[in-house]
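Reminder: ligand-aware prediction takes two inputs, not one.
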Amino acid sequence: MPTVPAAARRHAVTPTRRRRRTPVTAPQHLTTIDLTRFDLILVDSSAGKDSQATLDVVANAAAAAGVLDRVTVLHCDLGHVEWPGVIELATAQAAHYGVPIAVRRHHAGLLNLIHQRGRWPSPQARYCTSATKRQPARRYMTERVAALNLGRPAWILNCLGMRAEESTARAKKRAFAFDPSASNITRRKVWTWLPVHAWTEHQVWTRIHASRAPYHPAYDLGMRRLSCTLCPLAARADLVRACQLRPDAAHEYLDLEDAIGHDFRPGLALRDVYAEAVATAGPHDPITTGIALDFRPRLPLRSLNAEAVTTSTALDLAGSWSR
Ligand code: SF4
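Here is what comes back for the chain with iron/sulfur cluster:
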């Protein structure tokens, strides 16, 4: 079966041709991917449910292929805007599968970035993921490729937890594709794999429960998504619930909404979401009690093996944009 996309062939360079590597099978079914072709298998993980199911698929497939040692979880940390306990959870999930984790953080922090831009992220201007996830991930690839020092372009499989039913834009993505923008002539060839692209939310949760790996407690408290606590792209119901569970974070976003003078998203002001959260909160919700919840993962964990948090850039800039 032919297999490497045209874009990849255009990027093919002398070292690759000289070695005459067998093309990677272009799979639509995850079981057909030959993982042994890749020098490095990255799982980009937010520690959310889709990332977690992706890690389960990739780790099991890599173990079956005898290349689990090529798998690394990469968590691009968004700082305190993320749900508490996410780094610990991502680390615990990696440990569950016996693979290392690397954590990287954008130097400025997401709220500072939004304040600098003066606009909230939107589906048309999703600069948040580009700055805080894609760029750190590519820098990490550069680090790893340099460490591998193969003398030829490294082949990297970048695995992401995107699902088609999340949005029209994601539905249009291919489950497996060469990524020319992450690749370059001499150092690396990158393919993107979305193992759970065609999965339903029910399938994701079935897989997670079967794995017995820890997942984030926010899901059991009514959240349907993780990553940033408050995301302009999230459904209103999730925003209301997030305000009820993390009023501390909500207040920072409310201040930022005032500071930049734009509603959280067109037609939806966060102050209205917050008012709804107050009006519909339960007696035990933090927005009612004023007591923060403990969001650390609670399942028994194996030993943790976090590689490192980049403390040089891991600055806690909570609220510093406005003060
Ligand atoms: S969760 Fe939303 S705001 Fe946060 S990085 Fe992702 S798209 Fe941007």
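The chain is about 40% helix and 10% strand. The chain has a mean pLDDT of 84. We will return to this case in the review session.
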